[in-house]
Structures are given as structure tokens and as C-alpha cells.
Amino acid sequence: MINELRFINRKYLIFGLPSSVICSVFFFLCSYLAMGQVKSTIDSTSIKIGEQITYHIQVETDTSKLVVFPEGQTFSPLEMIESYDIDTLKNKDKFNLIKKYGLTQFDSGTYTIPRQKIIIGDKTFFTDSLQVEVNTVVIDSTKGLFEIKPIIAVEKTGNNWWVYVLITLLIVAVIAFLMYWFIWRKKALSEEEQIALLPPYDRAKLALKNLDESPYLEHENLKDYYSELTFIIRKYLEEKVYDRALESTTNELIERLNLLMEGNQIDIDKEDIRKLESILQRADLVKFAKSAPDIELAKMDRQTIDIEIDHVKEALPEPTEEEKLLDEQYRAEQEQRKKRKKMWLTIGISVFLLVATFTGFSLKFGFNYVKDTIIGHDSKTLLEGDWVSSQYGFPPVTLATPKVLKRTTPELSEQQAQQLDLTQFTYGSIIDKFQIVVATTRLKNAGQEKIDIEQAVDGSLKMFENNGAQNIITKKDKFVTPNGAEGLKVYGTMDIPIPNTDQMEKGEYVILGFTAENVIQQIMLFHEQRDVYAKQIVERILNSVELKDAEK
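User: That's the sequence. What structure does it adopt?
Assistant: C-alpha cells below.
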């Protein structure tokens, strides 16, 4: 190897240049080529407090390569207030990508925008660091100062859940009112319904009165007049004497009345039956043979029918108490039947509205989301609840979680207690199918040896095995927090036992590992694989992780 280097040095000296200069030129060219792919600029190097500057990152690459721009608060000490969409320009077989960020700072001073990491394909590039001057706003005190304003009450903005509850109650109230108005409300009876509720005798008398007010006789319409007249007497006889009086012929009806009289079932005279027979036969001649009796005779027949209705009523025996009870029971059953009909109609409409509402929300938001919103889902409640951002351990690990993590005391052997100091904060467990663990391990006798973070993560995986996990699949990747701390990300799937059964179900895990001198910091997240809300929780936690040095 030494001989090869000497050969190279002699080769370069042929051109009259020392090897160190040649190497410098070589590395400069490599850097230039790399920077030719990634450029960063800002639209202004001097701003006022709170003023926005635009940070540009320009990348030139092949059309087949994936480009990953920085996301999150990676511009500290400047604050990113907006991330713009990527502008794409195509130049032959290359893409020119321009990514813009809106940055600001609310304290005066000179700040340096740190180098930003850009991933192009499987290679990593860094932009140049840029310096920005943030100036204070000059106040002209000669023009006078305004007085301090009093405290103003600000309307609290938050979760206006009560608005949705109020709207829901209003809709339910409107639906209930409509059901009451059209189904349960006791409506005023129409004239026809009132007549139908009258006893047969009163209904027959009222029908005769309406017949007197009709224009049949005035227009000499004897056919319709006798049709109405015979219908009145037949209807009364059907309801009180013979239940087939309407459909019987005149001869059949008279024959039936004679049988009832002879059997002493009704106390009616033969003369009354003869008069009814005469009027019914005359009506048949008018309706079918186009006979035209005198108007006065028609009026006399009407008076005869009126008298015969009274005679039939007097001839009928008084209803017994049992018959009255049966009649009352029949009316009660009719009322119950109507009430059941209204009840089933109300239930049907309610079920239809619920199904229609559920279907509509399912089409808009998804079936599972609507189902979990109505029935409830633990992970969904955690995701949509009030999150807490806190620091755990020392050096502090900052992350946002649905609930505050509680300090737990892990069991350590006597030998482990002598070698390390372990601080642990947890929420949930593997049995609960969701778990968050933040652990900080300080090695007491680490010395100058470099800590193997992969070995530490393997120890965490054994914790899953001790809880019954099987078929653990592991993937490893580099992880960078929003504030630039680099660590190891181990993630994958595993089979976990279902409590009180012999079955297993799939779970997913993520373990973040960081090292600093003699300290190991780990964040372990576990959830059920099919739990979509838990996946969103894990993603949100990972995006919130920040590490701080112990010296700061």
C-alpha cells in the first residue's frame, strides 16, 4: 500500500504539483458536482422581527430518482411557518425541483440556518448553512407612546361539541314533532267519521233527513231517490236484524223477516213486513222497469220507512249486559289495534331514518369511522382527545402523547442495579394492545467504550418475547428527530397472544434508540396491526420526538 502511494505521488509530481494539492482539487471537484445537484438560497439576509423570508432548495436529478425534502422544524433557531408545494421543471431527461419554506424569527440577533438534509435516491446531500440578520423595529419615542390598553376578554376557541349536540337535539325534536302531528295527534273527526260513529238508528234517521234535503224529487229523479231510500232501510236491517240484508233480493229479505217473526226473534207485525215489501217492490220497478210513480207517493213511502224504522227498533230486544260488555270490548280492541298500528309506523320511520343517516355518514366518512364513533373505540378516543407534550428522563426526551406517561419501576437484578440506572415511563401494556414506553438507561461503568445501540434495542425485543410475542419480524432504519438528533429506528410486526385463548393476533411495534456518552434513550411503541387509529397515534408521536443534551 505504501509503495502504491509513493507511485501516485511520483506520478502527480510529473505535472509539477504536490500530491496534497491534487487531492484538494479532487475533493473540491466532488463537492462541486454534489452541490451542483442541491442548491439553497434565501430571498433576504436581513429582516425585521416577525418578518417572513423564503428559503429555496433547488434539486436537479434524474426522473427515476425519489427526492425527500426536509419536513418539520428543522430550521431552528428560525421557525418554519409554512411549507409550500414543490415546483417541478423538466429539462430533457432531468427534473429541476424547487421547494420553498416560509421562515421567521421573533427575537433580534444574528442567526444561522442549519444545513438541511436532502435525500436523492439512496444518497444523502446537505445544503450550505446561511446567515440571517433579524433587526428590531425602531420606535420613534418623539412622537409619543400610546397608553397601555386594558385587558380584553377573548372568546375561547375550542371544541364546540355542544353545537353538534344542540343541532342533533333540534333535528330529533323536529322529527318527533312531525311524528306526533301526523301519527299520534288526535285529529278532529270529519263529518263522515262522525256519522260512522253514530248508532245504527241515529244514522238511519240522519240519512232520511239528508234525503229530504236532496234535489231528487225536485228534479223528478225517482230512481236515485228510491235507491237511497231502500239503501237506508236495508242498511239498518243489516246492522240490527239480518246481516245479509244489503245483498239479498226483495223476496229473500221479506222471507227472512217472516221467519224471524214466526220464530219470535223479533216482535214485528205482519202489517209492517207487508208495508216494507210493498215499498221494496215499488223501488225495484222504479230502478229496473223504469216505473214512474207519483211524487206524493214517493213522499208517503219515505214517511212509511221512517215509521217502520221506529217499529223495528221497538221490536228488537234490549241488549244484555254481556252484549254490552262484548261491544265495549270490541271497541277497546279496535282502539288497541289503532295504537299498535301507530306504534309500528313510528318504529318503522325511526329505523328508516337511523339507517339512512348511518348510510349517509358511512358513504362520506367511512363505515368503520361512523361505527367507532357511535359504539366507541379506545384508540379513537385517545387520538381525538387532548394530547400532552412533556419531557421524560434526563437528558430529557420530549414527545406528545394522548395521556401523560407514568413513572414505573422495572425489576432489576442485583448485578443489573450495580451496572446501570434505569428510568422508565409507560402507558398501557401489550395485553391492552397498545403501549408507550420511554426508557433512559445510564451506564455506571461505561468508560470510553462506544455504546452499541443495536444491542440495546435487541434487549428491548426480548421484553416482547417475555410477554409471549412470537414471529418477530425486524426492520432497521435511520431516524432523525425534527431538531436534528439522529438515532436508530427498529420496527416490524409480531404475533401476540390473545388473553385467555390459545390464538395469536398480529401487532406492530416501533423502537427508537439514541445514545449520548454513557446514556441510552429508547422509545417503544406497540399497537394492534388492524387498529388504524393506533397507527395515526404512533405517527403523531414519532413526529413529535425531540432530544436535548444534558448540558443545555
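The two ends are 46 Å apart (CA to CA).
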